[in-house]
């Protein structure tokens, strides 16, 4: 498997996926600067897009 095959970018919809985003964002920016999961869920349910970048099945980035 090449490195490009190990990287997966996909749209996130599940609460568990969005909670993963929150945890990563908290590690990067701190608890006070991260967006609460309920706000992200609301955005996704109303047409918003959250993308997750996974390397070897681990979330390493998001947009």
Q: Widest sheet: strand order? A: 1-2-3
Estimated helix fraction: 40-55%
What structural category characterises the helix and strand content? Answer: alpha+beta
By DSSP (H or I, 4+ residues per run), the number of helices equals 3
Number of strand elements: 3
The shape is: globular
What fraction strand?
Answer: 15-25%
Q: CA-to-CA gap between the ends? A: 25 Å
Radius of gyration of CA atoms, rounded to a whole number: 12 Å
Mean pLDDT across every amino acid position? 92
Order of helices and strands: HEHHEE
Major beta sheet summary: 3 strands, antiparallel
User: How many structural domains can be distinguished in the coordinates?
Assistant: 1
Unreliable stretches (pLDDT < 50, length at least 5) are: none
Give the structure's gist in a few sentences.
With 63 residues, this protein is an alpha+beta fold.
What do these coordinates show?
The chain is α+β, with helices and mostly antiparallel strands and 63 residues long. It has helices spanning 3-6, 15-29, 37-45; strands at residues 7-11, 51-55, 58-62. Helix content is 44%, strand content 24%. The radius of gyration is 12 Å and the shape is globular. The protein is built from 3 helices and 3 strands, in the order αβααββ. The chain has one domain (3-62). The mean pLDDT is 92. The chain has a 3-stranded antiparallel sheet with strand order 1-2-3.
């Amino acid at each position: 498997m090449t490195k490009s095959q190990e990287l997966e970018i996909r749209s996130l919809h599940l609460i568990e996926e969005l909670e993963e985003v929150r945890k990563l964002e908290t590690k990067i920016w701190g608890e006070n600067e991260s967006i609460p999961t309920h706000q992200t869920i609301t955005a996704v349910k109303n047409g918003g897009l959250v993308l997750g970048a996974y390397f070897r099945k681990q979330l390493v980035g998001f947009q």
